[in-house]
Each structure stands twice: as structure tokens, then as C-alpha cells.
Write a structure and sequence with these properties.
Length: 254
């Protein structure tokens, strides 16, 4: 049984004071967090504040939105896996479509980051997904296969099992237009099939695949009830602690 994983990607939002208020309200609203894993992914500048506000809250982990693959050195403006581990960060989102399109990240760069993350025992959440043009041309599977094989090249089965994949169709991000549960399930099943080819059955069954793209309290339950959808990577709706708490609750319901 795969434990569902719900992550809040705050992107370039949330001051320290806003982060602290968010955590207080969220903890009050979401009730006991059992059978699901919750990850908060603040901007770097609010990571320590979120950690502090969470205190001993169980089943809530903190992630980062990016990192560089080198261990240390003259790389002005970059953050290493070791520096994130130093803050007790557990997860790191890598290859988000915003990084791919706005900052020129390629599958090869994502792969270097993914491998560096594993080396530092930081768990990557690797984002993949097609554009609308690619979908309209019937290229969804081709694109997903290229991104998966490129971003996850060279990982051992164990490392793959400790990797979370986020299927985020680019056309669904921040648009209010989510993939239908059927579209998402189809893509997730294809991703799992590809993982089977890249590794083995056990590995493919263990990897958690999140859906991301306009997830809201209103659509979360149906999306997450699909057999290959193991959680959500939430952008806009994760900035409101009440909405995010509702999405977490939706993950608990069968
Ligand atoms: P939205 O939920 O705002 O569509 O963003 C999705 C996303 O990019 C999460 O990483």
C-alpha cells in the first residue's frame, strides 16, 4: 500500500510571518494526520520558520523548491543538498515546469540534481508533464517517457523507490483547468508502466506518483481516488491553510 503524499508548493510566496500563521491555522484545521504524509515546500527564506512552527507535528515534512548538484564551492546564489539537510529538509522538488521553461533546466540537469539529492539522503519530488501543444499532437506518452528516463537515469531500484514523481501537465498549472481524473489516471498508469520497464514490478508498485495542476478542495477527492494517483502537489490552493487542510482530508477518505 502506498501512503499518499500531499505537498504544498508555495513557489515564490509567503514571508516568515505568513508562513508561521499558515502553519498555526493548518495544524488547527487539518486534525490528526494519519495515513498520509504532508510536505510543506516554502521558499528557502521561510524554511527555518516553518520548521520551528511545526515543532513536533508528526507526518509533516519540509521540502525545498530547488537545489544545485554540486556539494559546495563558488556557486553564488545556489543551495546544495547538504545545506538543505543541515536545515532538516526531507524533500526537494526538482524539474518543476517553471524551472524547465523559465530557467532552462533540461532532463540532464534535473538528473544531476536528482542523483546529488539521493547522495545526500534528500528525497526528490521529480516533476514531469506535457504542454498543451504536445498533448494536442498526441505526444503525451512520448514526452513523459523522455522526461522520466532522462531525469531518473542511473538510479538504483532503491533510489527510485525513494523518489516521488509529480505528474504536472503544464496546461493545468495555475490555469484553474485540472486534468480530468481519467486523463490523470491514464498518464499515471503510463508512468508506472515505464517505471516497470526501467526497473522492476516491485519498484514500480512502490513509487508514489502525485498529480499536480489546479488541485483544489473540490476536485482533490476524485483525483486521488484513482488507482495510480498517490497524492497531490498543490500550488495556488496550498497558500490558504484551510484549502490545503481540506485537500489533506480528501486524501484520507477512500
Ligand atoms: P497550481 O496548483 O497553482 O495549478 O500549481 C501546481 C503546481 O505547479 C504545483 O507544483
Amino acid at each position: 500500500m502506498r501512503k499518499k503524499i500531499i505537498a504544498a508548493n508555495w513557489k515564490m510566496n509567503m514571508t516568515q510571518a505568513e508562513s508561521e500563521r499558515f502553519v498555526e491555522t493548518f495544524l488547527r484545521d487539518c486534525g490528526e494526520i494519519i495515513d498520509v504524509e504532508v510536505v510543506i515546500v516554502p521558499p528557502f527564506t521561510s524554511i527555518a520558520k516553518v520548521m520551528e512552527a511545526l515543532g513536533r507535528a508528526q507526518n509533516i515534512k519540509v521540502g525545498a523548491q530547488n537545489m544545485y548538484w554540486e556539494k559546495s564551492g563558488a556557486f553564488t546564489g545556489e543551495i546544495s543538498a547538504a545545506l538543505l539537510r543541515d536545515l532538516f529538509v526531507h524533500y526537494v522538488v526538482l524539474g518543476h515546469s517553471e524551472r524547465r521553461t523559465l530557467f532552462g533546466e533540461t532532463d540532464e540537469m534535473v538528473n544531476r540534481k536528482v542523483r546529488a539529492a539521493h547522495e545526500a539522503t534528500l528525497r526528490p519530488i521529480v516533476c514531469i508533464g506535457e504542454t498543451l501543444e504536445q498533448r494536442d499532437k498526441g505526444n503525451v506518452e512520448k514526452i513523459l517517457s523522455i522526461q522520466l528516463r532522462g531525469s531518473l537515469a542511473g538510479l538504483t531500484p532503491k533510489e527510485l523507490q525513494e523518489t516521488v514523481i509529480a505528474y504536472e501537465p503544464v496546461w493545468a498549472i495555475g490555469t484553474g483547468r485540472n486534468a480530468t481524473p481519467q486523463q490523470a489516471q491514464e498518464a499515471h498508469a503510463f508512468i508506472r508502466k515505464t517505471l516497470r520497464e526501467m526497473a522492476d514490478d516491485t519498484t514500480a508498485e512502490r513509487v508514489r506518483i502525485q498529480y499536480g495542476g489546479s488541485v483544489k478542495p473540490e476536485n482533490a477527492r476524485e483525483l486521488m481516488s484513482q488507482s495510480d494517483i498517490d497524492g497531490a502537489l498543490v500550488g495556488g490552493a496550498s497558500l490558504d491553510p484551510r484549502s490545503f487542510a481540506q485537500i489533506v482530508k480528501a486524501a484520507r477518505e477512500k
